[in-house]
Amino acid sequence: MSSYDVIVIGSGPGGYVAAIRCAQLGLKTACVEGRETLGGTCLNVGCIPSKALLHATHMLHEAEHNFEEMGLKAKAPTVDWKQMLTYKDKTIETNTKGIEFLFKKNKIDWLKGWGSVPEAGKVKVGDEVHEAKNIIIASGSEPAGLPGVEVDEKTVVTSTGALELGKIPKKMVVIGAGVIGLELGSVYARLGTEITVVEYLDAITPGMDPEVQKTFQRMLKKQGLNFVMGAAVQKTEVAKGKAKVSYKLRKDDSEHEIEADTVLVATGRKPVIKGMGLDDLGIKMTERGQIAVNEHWETSVKGVYAIGDVIEGPMLAHKAEDEGMAAAEVISGKHGHVNYGVIPGVIYTHPEVASVGETEATLKDAGREYKVGKFSFMGNARAKAVFAGDGFVKLIADKETDRILGCHIIGPGAGDLIHEVCVAMEFGASAQDLAMTCHAHPTYSEAVREAALACGDGPIHM
Ligand code: FAD
After folding, report:
1. Average pLDDT for residues 121-134, to the nearest whole number?
2. If you placed Cys at 115, which of 9, 25, 73, 104 could pair as Cys (CB 3.0 to 4.6 Å)?
């Protein structure tokens, strides 16, 4: 038996970051991970592999659609799917090994196996019980199922199966028009798969700015994705390696079927809590089955903390990381802090979509007066030069004080551009502060400044 100041359960972006911060703050730390490799969902079957495939297929798209226009006359590349998967696996490996290196560097013990908490202050891994003054649960999430849909990870797959299909399917049905479904749908659409996205709601990417939703759906349609909206999937059936998806249209209850080689179920994720003995420990849960925590990320059991996808809030790697750092700081007697009002959300399609803070809808609901500064990438020289003029930046500021309340971007580099607004929001900046900041030319970020100008006297290039 070993004794630690902190044992973290789970080595995803929440867990590994918490472990590193604990160690940096002088706490004797171990991290339990049941997977073969560190890094959790994000590095193994989430953010990183999906971005590798998005990158590779975006290169293909550029070659097929834009090279000729730029005077690049080589034949468009053919796809070696096996090699593309190898590239994706190597990307995973360098990243997961990187965490192993960081654990060694920070003298964090990796306790290999599945952990449980038999009592406060104790963590069991295999047959061994370790003592821990503090425990951080960072067990993450897993794909949520859908009644009537049986996943076999071959024909009917979750995102995990979709990242390693044996071959590129001819036809794919994606159930759910959320971030994961649209990113992976884009990957396969670029590889020539006929994609049909079946979504229960009437708009894609729930919660996003409606103008962004509409523009994004239009762009995805142009890229070949088909959409069936307002459709409730009833069941999937698999025979001889082919799938049939049955759905009902909500507007008239009419019943329909689509056939596909592969069905991707991307209807959300649920917290991983099984097997850790949390019930017996008396840990309180939320109504939605997440671990309930207070403002210091402590559960109802003293000395047991929880962070990341297993607690409330957006299921995002950077939200988990921030909570990991904050919980470590609280444990070491410092003041951990996460500003939940400034957590960006990014969709890594082409173009990218990014948002932070309030939307017009949330402000209307709150009865708050606001103004909108909007700027199209058609007025941005750099974007036009790289065939990326479609899209816009929409900055929302308080009508009276001009303080920035939110930003929604669809366009080139949106996932990076959003951070300028995040920093501005953290500092309580006004739209005018952004508008008065010199932005290098020609950059996409000029569009953010122009949107800020549009909140005041007006943009220059529109
Ligand atoms: P996880 O990353 O889920 O890690 C939890 C770890 O705990 C796992 O490795 C698990 O094996 C381990 N574990 C669980 N129980 C135990 C136990 N009892 N004992 C030992 N180990 C245990 N987010 C973004 O911000 N950007 C993206 O681009 C993005 N892309 C995504 C793409 C896909 C396809 C998917 C599925 C997700 C994506 N996400 C993305 C979401 C992101 O992966 C998660 O929000 C993030 O991984 C959550 O981190 P976490 O530390 O809470 O948990």
Report:
1. 97
2. 9
Q: To which residue do tokens 């329909």 refer?
A: 256
CB 98 within 8 A of CB 19: no
The pLDDT of residue 225 is above 80: yes
Helix (H/G/I), strand (E/B), else coil: 263 = strand
- Type and span of the H or E element at 24: helix 13-24
Q: In a mutational test of the pocket of ligand 1, which residue from 139, 160, 174 has the highest number of ligand atoms less than 8 Å from its CB?
A: 139
Q: At CA 10, angle to CA 8 and CA 12, rounded to 5? A: 115
Tokens for 382?
A: 């750099």
pLDDT at 75: 82
Tokens 């659609």 belong to: 65
CB 244 within 8 A of CB 236: yes
**Cα torsion angle, 208, 269, 289, 149, sign:** positive
Positions of E strands within 13-152: 29-33, 109-112, 115-119, 122-125, 128-137, 141-143
For residues 16 and 29, is the Cβ–Cβ distance under 8 A? Answer: no
β-strand pairing of 304-306 with 128-137? parallel
Residues facing 232 on adjacent strands: 248
Atom of ligand 1 nearest to the CA of 40: 9
Ligand 1 midpoint to CA 262 (Å): 24
426: its two tokens = 């953290």
Asked if the peptide bond before residue 314 counts as cis, ω within 30 degrees of 0, the response is no
Burial of 35 (0-12, 13-18, 19+ CB in 10 A): middle
Task: Give the rounded distance of the alpha carbon of 459 from its chain centre.
Answer: 32
3-state secondary structure of 394: strand
Annotation marks residue 419 as catalytic:
no
- Region 179-206 average pLDDT: 98
In the chain, what is the straight-line distance between the N-terminal and C-terminal CA atoms, in Å?
68
Can you give the C-alpha Rg of the chain in angstroms?
Answer: 23
The whole model's pTM is what? 0.97
Ligand 1 centroid–CA 142 distance in Å is: 8
**What are the tokens at 183?**
């990113």
What number is the ipTM of this complex?
0.99
Contact status, residue 374 vs residue 392, Cβ threshold 8 Å: yes
- Average pLDDT, integer, range 91-119: 98
